[in-house]
Amino acid sequence: MMMKQNRINLIATFLLGVFLISCGNSEEQSNSESDTFQEKNAKTFSQKVDLSKVREVKLLREANDASVNWMAFTTARNEINRMPDFTLQEVVNNSNNIFRSIQELQDSIPTDFQEVPIQARLNVLLTKAYLLEGEANKQPPSAKNIDSLSAELYKEFGNLKIQLNEVFLKSVEDFEFELDERIRKQDSLAQLKKDSLPNN
């Protein structure tokens, strides 16, 4: 009877040992898989934002001068201008600042720029910033989505700059009208000079 009890204890100890070892192995495997995912994720998010397909837009001197005192524009431009140097992780970390700076931009349009096309561009820009912030706050965020939304936001800021430039670009019709006016004035002056000369 005693021997039978010892044998049962021995089998129970053996089974307990096998169970503990298998639990330990599966936990190590789980940790290893988790580390691998985190490592892959870290590697993916350490890549730079891909803006290779987005052209850079520069402000005309007049548009730049007009926007100098628009502090919200300066702040938003600084945030967006940093994007080519950002990793995807840095975009995630700064997405809230980007969104807030664009929100302030929309709330503080100066008189020179209070035009429908500019307001429309700001609405699109704010939407892109909102989507980027939403993606950044997901657990976990998608690197692919962060990359494409960053490129879209950068492009839309360029489109806003084009619209700001438009305020200071004269239309062809305006230019032709100005030219016609100059020619007319010169003709009038020439006629006046001719009329004022004494008859020989």
Could you describe the 3D structure shown?
The protein is mostly helical. Helix content is 76%, strand content 0%.
Question: Which helices and strands, and how do they pair?
Answer:
Layout: H1 2-45, H2 61-67, H3 71-81, H4 88-106, H5 116-136, H6 143-166, H7 172-196
Helix pairs in contact: 3-4, 4-5, 5-6
Short summary of the structure?
This protein is 76% helix and 0% strand. By secondary structure, it is mostly helical. The longest helix is centred in the N-terminal third of the chain and has 44 residues, at 2-45.
What are the defining features of this structure?
200 residues; rod-shaped; Four Helix Bundle (Hemerythrin (Met), subunit A); 7 helices; mainly alpha
Outline the biggest β-sheet.
none
Whole-number tally of structural domains: 2
Strand content: under 5%
Low-pLDDT regions? 30-34
